[in-house]
Amino acid sequence: MIVLDSTRAVMDQARLVSIDDAAIERWARGIAPASLKPSGHELIGQLSGSQEALANLVLLVDALNFCFWSSNPLRFEWRGKTYERYEAMFVSLMLAARYEPRWSDADYWVSIPSAELRETLTGKGELLLLDERERIVRETGRVLIERFDGQFMHAIESVSGRAWPLAVLLMTEFDSFRDVATYHGQIVYIMKRAQICPLDIAICWQAHGHPGLSGLEELTAFADYRVPQALRHLGILRLELSLAEAIDREEEIEVGSDAEIEIRAATIRAVDKMKNALGATGKRVAAWEIDWYLWALGRGGAVQVKHHRTRTFYY
Fold first, then answer.
1. Helix or strand or coil: residue 17?
2. Mean pLDDT of 206-210
3. Residue 38 above 80 pLDDT?
4. Catalytic residue chosen out of the listed positions 200, 224, 258, 291
5. What value does the mean pLDDT take over residues 213-235?
6. Which class for 41: exposed (0-12), middle (13-18), buried (19 or more C-beta within 10 A)?
7. Coil, strand or helix at 36
8. Strand bridging mode 180-183 / 186-189
9. Is 248 known to be catalytic?
């Protein structure tokens, strides 16, 4: 499996980040199965429309699912609740699609006026990389029109509804999903958004009574900035002192640097080891379920260590 194999090669050479196997064993023995029950991602099921429209909307959302770590985070109020960061953008897009059904139409992504697009994506606070987001919306629309007749459903059908082949299709056909790095001359496949999109499709469709996608257990962790933060909190990821200090000072870590690639590779490898450690105790859990548990942990108040900050559209 290219993600696991290429990230294993990174960790064989890593100097700045390491994985504490003993900490993983302690975690696996102590974690309650109920703690790993997926939660906190119910919003994806609140998108509305036909099965085809839902597929396009999830693709659009995941094309934009990156870089929400501003110190003045994006905020959006709905039904008496204030949503922040990714959830703020999601709710804004979801409500826009309810008001204007053309948001599920790839032709609309290409032609929508810039001002309207930016107003929809932004609310209170700061949304980073806004120019990149506009470019990606239009690029995603063009690719969908040119290669899949405007329907992401056709892409899903072309891989027989299988999660991992769909992730590979996203990586190869859509430039912004090509989350692939180079580390000491070696290609490293990370594929955060390319892998999370099939899961989001499955969750969204199932919420509306449609069959999900098969093979979700083949997906790896979705290496972002929250999951390694939680792993560091648990003592599973160990950072070289100067890197840890730079992260805690909220200095930006350069995209494509050894530090950034090692953090993300270690995240994927650590979650795979956690999955295997749980399996050895008789607890069968998919990597994406551990990822969701860690993502929620990273957002909670118990975690005091900082997350790394990288200005990129890959995560």
1. strand
2. 96
3. no
4. 224
5. 98
6. middle
7. helix
8. antiparallel
9. no
| 244: containing domain | 2-299
Residue 16 lies in a domain: yes
Question: Token pair of 284, please?
Answer: 């069968």
**What is the torsional sign of CA 84, 243, 241, 287?**
positive
Q: Does some domain include residue 312?
A: no
Average pLDDT over residues 168-172: 98
Say which residue the tokens 């979801």 belong to.
94
H-run or E-run covering 189: strand 186-189
- Taking 90 as the threshold, does the pLDDT of residue 41 lie above it? no
Beta-carbon neighbour count of residue 162 at 10 Å? 17
Specify the residue for token string 């999903």.
177
Cα 169 from Cα 160, distance rounded (Å): 12
CB atoms within 10 A of CB 119: 12
Three-class DSSP category at 306: coil
In a domain, 315, yes or no: no
Total domains, the chain: 1
* Region 207-235 average pLDDT: 97
Supply the pTM of this predicted model. 0.95
Question: Residue 37 has what pLDDT?
Answer: 82
* pLDDT in the model for residue 301: 83
Joined tokens for residue 159:
């891989």
Q: Is residue 244 assigned to a domain? A: yes
